[in-house]
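To the wet lab folks,

You asked to see what we're planning to order before we commit. Fair enough. Below is the target structure as tokens, and below that is the sequence we designed to fit it. If anything looks off to you, flag it before the synthesis order goes out.
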């Protein structure tokens, strides 16, 4: 039996928390704790919490249009 990989990313911002699940993936280069990312897709509810399955994503780099530099 073939094992399926699922990468789960927990996202938090000022609007709340969301779980993104990527079936068939074990990693996404550049996606790590503290990364800034934009997800696009339909949101469902699982166990009372918002979830996106295989959303389109964009890794954001500080200082690019639409993403102001972070202060550090």
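Sequence we intend to order:
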């Amino acid at each position: 039996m073939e094992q399926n990989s699922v990468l789960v990313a927990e996202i938090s911002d000022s609007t709340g928390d969301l779980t993104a699940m990527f079936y068939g993936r074990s990693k996404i280069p550049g996606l790590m704790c503290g990364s800034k990312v934009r997800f696009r897709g339909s949101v469902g509810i699982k166990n009372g919490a918002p979830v996106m399955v295989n959303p389109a994503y964009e890794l954001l780099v500080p200082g690019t249009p639409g993403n102001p530099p972070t202060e550090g």
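Structural context that might help your review: The chain has no helices and six strands. The chain has a mean pLDDT of 85.

Thanks,
Computational group
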